[in-house]
Design a protein that fits this description.
By secondary structure, this protein is an alpha/beta fold. 27% of the residues lie in helices and 25% in strands. It starts with a strand and ends in a 16-residue tail after the last helix.
Amino acid sequence: MKALILAAGRGSRLHPYTADCPKCLTELGGMTMLARQLATLGAAGINDIIIVSGYRGEMLDVPGTHRIENTRWETTNMVESLFAAEDEFGDDLIVAYGDIVYEPRVLNALLQSPHEISVLVDRQWRAYWETRFDDPLSDAESLRMDSEGRITDIGNPVDDIDDVEAQYMGLLRFRQNGTKALKEARAGLGRTERPWMEERPVENAFMTDLLMELILAGEAVHAVPVDGGWLEIDTVGDYEKITSMFADGTVTQFFDPRAGVKAA
């Protein structure tokens, strides 16, 4: 099993904290987001780790990992970073955004999934989003599932809370047939008009665009529901709020930093 951490972006919404380092090297509770991910992955026995870099990529030469550069990081998005490492996909691949941290139990839920394509989703997203945003729906995205737990819609803007059964977390798994389908879906992006891509060029496709391409192609994309146990950092407001919550201990309502990974 391999893990692929997508960490190419500048994190401009997190400036000035990312003025001199990639977003994943900002600290939460005395430990960088990247270090927390590496520790959690290592504790689960996942040691074959590839980091896709871009902005200040030389800072991500971490011992025990392999770095691949998205040379077009300034003008592309997550899908381009993912496929910069296509030759490394293998038969069992964990894909993680670089700006998230998660508890071991969250990763374990993904590792226990038997499906070819598995996507972690948070059922308790609303309380976390209400802490982050005045209007939770302003940043929420659609995510709907069928009775078998297969995702039927993901990544669209929403104005109705009922369109959000859980929230996408940026942590996925592709087994052998899943990685094959992934490559085929990437080739299909942009071939026809997709209203859900909002006329974005293929090189700026989001990961949820790629997941929708898989779904529309008939692939079973299974949700793996969890209840909290993770954080993502997008903006200065996010970072300062979560840093404050680490300091006063209230962060444990969303993420327990003591759960298997100790800050140095």
